[in-house]
Amino acid sequence: MQLALNGATTMKADLLTDIRAAHHAGFDLLEIWASKLRDYLKNHSTQQLRRELERHHLRAYSINSIEQITFRSSDAHVALLAECEQLCHIAQEIGCEHIVVVPSPRPAGVSDEEVITESVLVLHDLSDVAARYGVKLAFEFLGFAECSVRTLDASLEVVSRLARPDVGLVLDSFHFYVGGSRLESVARLRPEQLFIFHINGAEDRPRDQLRDAHRLLPDEGILPLKELWSALQAIGYNKMASVEIFRPEYWERDPIELAVAAKRAAERALGLNSHQMEPQ
Fold this sequence. Notes:
The chain is an alpha/beta fold and 280 residues long. It has helices at 15-25, 34-40, 46-55, 74-94, 112-131, 152-162, 173-178, 183-186, 225-234, 248-251, 255-270; strands at 2-6, 29-33, 59-66, 98-101, 136-140, 167-172, 194-199, 201-202, 215-216, 240-243.
């Protein structure tokens, strides 16, 4: 079992600071925030980035993310494919296996079946691009009411219909709760379909009032993280978990101190010990 730091948790820090913070805290993996990556590459090469990751004993696990991939105009879809190609090329050069992709809000009047069909078609196009670079796509459902794919069941239906081993899921504990996903749904998931597990806590608010800014460290708040983790272990998942928190007050903290707190909170929340943390 390996732990990752997601760049959203330290949003105001640059990529090099994220690398140093993740290393100092003892994380195994880093989910690279795409805007930080682009800023870094304005003055550095992918070879330099790969060396920095290796020097700090970190593996780039994902680039996070390509947003609003569905229900685009024809021109916007062409731009989407170009963005995917650019990020896949970078991912290949730095040894990063995954890119996170996120569906768009649901347009008015669009049915559940139309959402599934559109998601499958777009992911097919994107995965054809990603496959040329040996990169996998991790499809992330968002629990908010306006999102088109809100639950584990819906995202699993998309990935199952697509039936490509290089397209899998992101399961975020916050969005799992906000969208009303059920623990029973985890039993339908094959462990190889889950590429990324995002962990976090949340304030005690009604589901329809929770937004990203209400996230907390994984061992705080009301999310049933221990139960969710137990359900994932029951299906044989024990690959990785990534701390992803979008809390503005955390962004004002020292990134290294925050990374240390995030690592410790993740270990407590998941009941991990040093034996379980050995690299897979």
